[in-house]
Amino acid sequence: MNAALRLQRVRLAIGGRTLIGPLSATVQPGECLTLMGPSGCGKSSLLAWMAGTLDPVFEAEGRVTVGDTDLGPLPPEARRVGILFQDDLLFPHLSVAGNLAFALPAAVRPASERRARIEQALADAGLAGFGERDPATLSGGQRARVALLRTLLAQPRALLLDEPFSKLDAPLRDELRRFVFEHARDSALPTVLVTHDEADAAAAGGALVRLEAT
Amino acid sequence: MAEALHALSASAAVPRARPPWALRLAPALTLAAFVLPIVAGLAGTLLPAFGWLPALGGRELGANAWRALGAAPGFATALRLSLFTGWAATVLSLALALGIVAFVHHRPWARRLGEAMAPMLAMPHSALAIGFAFLILPSGWVARALSPGLTGWELPPDVATVGHASGWPLVAALLLKEVPYLVLMTLAALNQVPARAQVTVARSLGYGPVQAWFAVVLPQVYAQIRLPVYAVLAFSLSVVDVALILGPGNPPTLAVLAVRWFGDPDTRWVFPASAAATLLLAVVAASIALWFGAERVLGRWALVLLQRGVRRRRSAWLGGAATAAGAALLAAALASMGAMALWSLAAQWRWPDALPSAWTFANWQRQAGSLWLPALTTLVVAAASTLISLALVVACLEHESRQRVARPSRSLWLLYLPLLVPQVAFLFGLQVLLVRLGADGRLSAVIWAHLVFVLPYLFLSLADPWRAFDERYTRAALALGASRWRAFWRIKLPLLLRPLLLSCAVAFAVSVGQYLPTLFAGAGRVATLTTEAVTLAGGADRRVIGTWALLQAAFPLAVYWLAAATPRWLFRRRKALA
Q1: Nearest 5°: phi and psi at B360?
Q2: A125: distance to nearest CA of chain B, Å?
Q3: pLDDT band at B237 (very low <50, low <70, confident <90, very high)
Q4: For position B226, which CATH number holds?
């Protein structure tokens, strides 16, 4: 079973100026913590720090752990932290199924089993038969769903959402919110969402931390 | 004011007058300037390869030239050597360049690395090869630095390094130039895709940074570096000056063999020489076709591999190793320059001292008398070919931006034509044509031959910044009442000054480095620093060779530095341009 994600006295600064923190929080599996704040307050940088890809111009301190694992010393690829951005960033040289197969761990074998897992994931997402499609031919909502499936198939221990709904049209946004939070709950993943949209926070349904503009 | 704003917002309001005739003529003239000599030259080499060259008594078509080629001593070895050095240099330089970019692209200093490598491209191949020879000779700087302390050598060891039959010194010298070239081309291509964000996603899926780059970014950018890679392959297979300096002497590479026969006092050798040059053209064409096929097969295989989801965490050390090798190459290039400088200033440099024991300017003073004319010729030819190319290229690009036509992508292949066709394969034919026109051996012929190579490089380096220019500046000037002409001279050219000057520096360096075109179009009578340095490189006096090669390298470097410094100084009070 999955473990909780814990932030301990996390502080983010740039040029000696504190942007965020100190911040402490615990996110249980299946729960979602929402960080809300205006653009430029450093909330996306906080996610980048948790994912291990923070730009070195920032200074960060504090600890982020999943269960007993301290993520701090690990490179991004060893953290097993899935992240979704505003852009779906599907790889344009791979088919939909190719994108998903790239994420699926190598331990899932043989090839027939890999195909079955991908078919199943697509079917669950209402995208049955989309495997051989070129991602460029999909609608925005379909692409966003494939991006989430890709993240989940890599079997992460935690999920980070960096305003993944902000580029979608309003009706689509509701649908996708339901889709993402349902999947996060079903996979029992501790989830952190950053957004500036109150409706996102309401849909996430968990704890809410408001960040100030600095 | 309101009128001005209206003109800015409504592009349809801009008068679309027919461009002046000079602009309309530019594309055709530009193409003719560099495609015609190649086509005519290829024909003029192909015909003698099949026996036809009435001026030298060849009036019967047949395969005699090919029989003579096949029977020539050392032919098979020369062909094998060309194939090995060409393919080894290309495969290694591409592997190293991709490894380096995969390793550095996400690091903050990647940009500065690109800037540091750019001047390396300005170095003429032959100067770099001469400096490299100074390093690796049995009595070279490397052996001197290590002896006798580390090696125990009291005398220079009796081994062949320069001219080693394996061809490895030639391959190494080619890497010195080709790795930086491909790194810069790849870094430039990265701007076209969200490379960083996609690598971040792949890393969050569990892939190391180097594997992530190869899996996710390379397949998207390879199409943009394909032509540069083919140019490297064609160049490595057919290079002459570097092979003369560092390659084996007997037999040499196929390209050197052809040049040697073309220059033989016995003119009957022209026929097998033409056959060898034509064969080299076929070798290059077949190699490019084979490479293209290999791309397809490897690409498909890689896609299958990607979908198995195998994470190779330790892939990072491969990138690190490539970067270390790249750093070693950079150090070797700098040391090559240093070795040339030291020799040109050495009064006495005894084995095994690491440095000369006495210094002097006498080498320069003694050489001054013979240096100045080739130096002046080099300058004149480079300046003339650069300026003519600049006028043609600017006219083409300006025509394009005024017509607002979608640029045909096929023209890119044409631009690469001079970089893909081996020089040996058309320069003899061009020389025959020049003799017919009574122009061989004249400065103007040399300038034209240089233009064939200078023009495409200038076009390739200027086209992107020119096309990226925000035409609203021009529209703003027009709306303020300026004429087309005035908007062009007072607004567009100053704003594009930096890329203009840098492209000219690239073009200048290309001209300075030309060896074979100078030799053939000049009929051996026009001497430049490069032709003299390559000729001298076979000699024994390193103080003399060092002087020539250093001056040869100094010219393009100085021009490059000027081109980089001038806009910085001119616009020192303009933050947006500085």
Answers
A1: -165, 155
A2: 20
A3: very high
A4: 1.10.3720.10
Lowest-confidence pick of A7-11, B273-277, B317-321: B317-321
Average pLDDT, chain B: 90
Q: Do B503 and B479 reside in the same domain of the chain?
A: yes
Residue B332: per-residue pLDDT: 93
| Nearest by Cα to B74 from B261, B235, B233 | B261
Note whether B447 and B308 are same-domain residues: no
Higher-confidence residue: B317 or B205?
B205
pLDDT band at residue A37 under the 50/70/90 scheme: confident
Residue of A nearest to B222 (CA): A93
Q: Are residues B351 and B453 in the same domain?
A: no
ipTM given for this complex: 0.92
How many CB atoms are closer than 10 A to CB B14? Answer: 16
The total of structural domains in chain B comes to 2
Give the separation between CA A17 and CA A58, rounded to whole angstroms: 10
Identify the domain boundary among B360, B379, B395. B360
Gap from B332 CA to chain A (nearest CA, Å) = 32
Q: Between chains, do B204 and A151 touch, taking CB under 8 Å as contact?
A: yes
Confidence tier at B9 by pLDDT (50, 70, 90): very low
B261 touches chain A (CB under 8 A): no
Q: What is the pLDDT of residue B3?
A: 41
Tell me the backbone φ, ψ of residue A70, rounded to 5 degrees.
Answer: -85, 120
Chain B interface disruption, residue of A57, A71, A77, most B CBs within 10 A: A77
B369-414 per-position pLDDT tens digit: 999 999 999 999 999 999 999 999 999 999 888 876 656 556 778 8
**Contacts of residue A76 in chain B, CB cutoff 8 Å?**
200, 203-204
Q: Do B553 and B470 share a structural domain?
A: yes
Query: Residue B415 above 80 pLDDT?
Result: yes
Yes or no: say if B557 and B122 are a contact pair by the CB < 8 Å rule: yes
Contact B200 A83 (CB under 8 A): yes
| pLDDT tens, residue by residue, A54-76 | 988 899 999 999 999 999 999 99
Identify any residues that bridge with A83 across adjacent strands, giving them in sequence order: A160
**Nearest CB to A53; choose among B203, B208, B220:** B203
Mean pLDDT, residues A90-111 taken together: 94
Domain-embedded: residue B331: yes
- B116 and B248 fall within a common domain: yes
Per DSSP, what are the bridge partners of residue A7? A25, A64
Residue B254 is part of which domain span? 74-266+303-360
Q: In this structure, which amino acid lies at residue A171? A: P
Domains, chain A, with CATH or none: 5-80+156-210 (3.40.50.300)
Q: Does one domain contain both B189 and B227? A: yes
Token output for B503? 């492209």
CB-based contact B512:B551 (threshold 8 Å):
no
Residue B16 resides in a domain: no
CA–CA separation, B556 and B564 (whole Å) = 12
Angle subtended by helix axes B254-262 and B424-437, to nearest 10:
20
Across the A:B interface, residue pairs with CB atoms under 8 Å apart total 85
Task: Check residue A39 and give its pLDDT.
Answer: 81
In a domain, B324, yes or no: yes
B480 belongs to a structural domain: yes
